[in-house]
Amino acid sequence: MPITCWKRSGERHLPCIVHGEGASLHDAFDAYGRFVGQVEVRARGESLVLNQWLAESGWALPTFYDSITTANMNEITARAAHARSRRRGVWAHYRDRIAPLDRPLRDDRTSDRGAVILPKLFRRAAMWCVRHPRSPLGEAWLTTLRSDACFLRENPNASLRLDELVVQNKLKVRPEEIVFRDARMLSSGISPPRG
Question: Taking the model in full, what pTM does it have?
């Protein structure tokens, strides 16, 4: 369903339902207070799951945490594949190579036409550039990725660190193949949901 139907709904605020995958409301937010789950918007008697629409339209890279079910990962991955094959949205600019960031770092949304990389890698690279303004994104930078515990969807029992998936500043796998471990679950011993 095209998003324009929502724009024309005439409502200032669209009713929505949020679906978290955890056992309680606390489980629906990550360590940084970000909601982790699905957002379903309703208007004119219709509903749309925004996560799916964003993936299918190419406005989001699939990024998964171990708190999401396998079924939801599969759904988002399939929808993102549709956008990737047509190079829609962010996929037109996605790169697996982490290039040096333009310095000085600035918020210039009108002229930024650079490559799109996995958001977690961008955040780590931007923080490195702020803390080490004269240092390149090299071996020392890769050590900052060691704190990001993850696994590959094809082998959930093999624990990895994000730095193991980056070689010579190139991400070795597609974003949707990585599942990050939720730091709250790691520290509390909670088992993530499956299925």
Answer: 0.79
